[in-house]
Amino acid sequence: MAKEHHIYGKLTEIIPERNVMLDEPLKNHTYTHLGGKADYLVRPETYEQVQEVVRLANRENMPFTLLGNGSNLIVKDGGIRGIVMNLQNLTSIEIENQTIVAQSGARIIDVSQKALSHKLTGLEFACGIPGSVGGALFMNAGAYGGEVKDVLTSTKVVDREGNLLSLTADQLDLDYRTSNIPDKGYIVLEATFTLEEGNYDEIKAVMDDLTYKRESKQPLEYPSCGSVFKRPPGYFAGKLIQDSELQGKQIGGAQVSLKHAGFIVNKDNASAKEYIDLIHFVQNTVREKFGVSLEREVKIIGEDPK
To answer: According to its UniProt entry, what is the function of this protein (predicted)?
Structure first.
């Protein structure tokens, strides 16, 4: 307990007390509504606070986890030890000419809408991606033929030692749904996108079409992590799952969506274990039927209950 009070006191010296939470249920902070408790959940308001929390974790030899906005993520039922950081307070989006600088906690959907309002084209593909800017860089998010690396020019990150770095897009090794951000342990603070001038009506028409496709095909009425699997070369994950007759398959409260087979939804108060077990069941079934290995796009973190 003394250790807890010591760390809590140190955190509240860095971050306003309202943004430091003890034993916070992470199901309140994930799109799947899954996950046990974080020992400490912190929500910095400045880049300096991010740096200081990282340095504190290093000094105290405490585990440190960046949560993002919890969209493409499953947190296990045992929760996460140590310090968990959420960047939802870093949401600024600024535009100058054809350049947008967006902080990592801003929703990439909101950045695409801001681009539209300034008649800038290039981010239309992002109008239906639920993640944050930081998460979009983390996994080089994409949809409908576009991806982050097409428009990203630079970023500011904090490294594992708490240093602030300015990097070019090329330094992130962006590829299909991957980057070097997790391997390097970077915390994305902001991203700079360079777009092109376009016609407002044409940009809006594309975004309206993509929004319709998303809303008509995706099971947005239930909590989910979005697309569970990466697209296997030469196939579509959803089609393979559908052809395996797995739509509607349920383990506990987790279900393979009847609307889109590439989604697993939290239909009825699922546990993280049920959700993860269903992912494994789908992977095993598709491998047995078609000899294709489905690789997870969603990230799984945290501990199993003790």
So the answer is: Cell wall formation.
In terms of Cβ atoms closer than 10 Å to its own Cβ (0-12, 13-18, 19+), residue 137 is buried
- The architecture that CATH gives domain 93-202 is 2-Layer Sandwich (3.30)
Residue 252 has pLDDT above 60, yes or no: yes
* Residue among 24, 124, 190, 297 flagged as catalytic: 297
- The contacts of residue 289 (CB under 8 Å, 6+ apart) are 243, 244
Q: What is the pLDDT of residues 11-26, one digit of tens each?
A: 999 999 999 999 999 9
271 is catalytic: no
pTM: 0.90
Under CATH, which architecture does the 218-301 domain have?
Answer: Alpha-Beta Complex (3.90)
Question: Model confidence over 191-224: pLDDT tens digits?
Answer: 999 999 999 999 999 999 998 888 788 888 899 9
CA separation for the pair 226, 224 (Å, rounded): 5
Point out the catalytic residue in the list 227, 244, 257, 271.
227
Q: Is the pLDDT of residue 82 over 60?
A: yes
Fold of 2-85: 3.30.43
Active-site residue identified among 177, 231, 287, 296: 177
Annotated catalytic, 296? no
Q: Is 216 a catalytic residue?
A: no
Per the listing, tokens 């740096």 go with 51
